[in-house]
Amino acid sequence: MEERAAQRASEARWKARPIAKEIRGSLCAGGLQIQPVSLETWATGPHASDPEPAMLVSAKRNRWSSEGQPTIYASSDAGVALAEYGRHRRQPATVTVAWEIELTLERAVDLRSFEARAALGIPDEATWVLDADRCQWLASTLRADGRVDGLLVPSVAFLDQPDRWNAVIFVDRLGAGLSKSIHIRQQAATILRGAAHHA
Questions:
Q1: Which of 135, 123, 127 is nearest to 5 (CA)?
Q2: Which of 4, 60, 182, 190 counts the most CB atoms within 10 A of its CB?
């Protein structure tokens, strides 16, 4: 009973969108763990003979970014990257590539973590990530605070597989700069006219 009551309270806080001041308080008090990460990830972007990290940046509105916020979305594996691409772009007009990239963040928050979600008032259930408006608001609040340069988040395409996830890179908050945070290693797959061809 107590556990269920705590979960209901968490859900209520999430639906009420805790004010930005409360999130800043959690950051200042150390209640939200911010840590460096170095990960092998995959991201979709245009084909290029000499790929540069800047070509992966998007300023379009998405689940974890508002219009005008420079962001890179990466994934735990090529399959997740292709699935996420398919959810957002049904019929590509140009050749798109899934790139294998080495990602380094200095100040990341892992929202797959129960502790991180609890610190932010996010309910302890997998479906919380389906509320796109609140996810966008949460990411924008953390970005605006300035102490976080990226997030690790569940993939909506694979909610039943927590080991498959997305990375959200706040390009405008990268203290080390884009070229030192993102290193494109190789092409993993090519998408042409809706079909995926693995390299």
A1: 123
A2: 182
Q: Rounded distance, CA 137 to CA 153, Å?
A: 14
SS3 14: helix
Alpha carbon of residue 151 to chain centroid:
5
79-to-55, 94, 182, 190 alpha-carbon distances in Å: 20, 20, 20, 12
Q: What is the pTM of this model?
A: 0.82
In three-state secondary structure terms, 18 is: coil
Nearest CA to 122 among 139, 106, 108? 139
Helices (H), 16-113: 20-28, 78-88
67-120 pLDDT tens trace: 999 999 999 999 999 888 877 665 555 678 899 999 999 999 999 999 998 888
- How far is the C-alpha of 68 from the C-alpha of 45, rounded, in Å? 18
Rounded to the nearest 5°, which phi and psi values hold at 112? -80, -15
List the structure tokens of 74: 């990466």
Residue 46's φ and ψ, nearest 5 degrees, are -70, 155
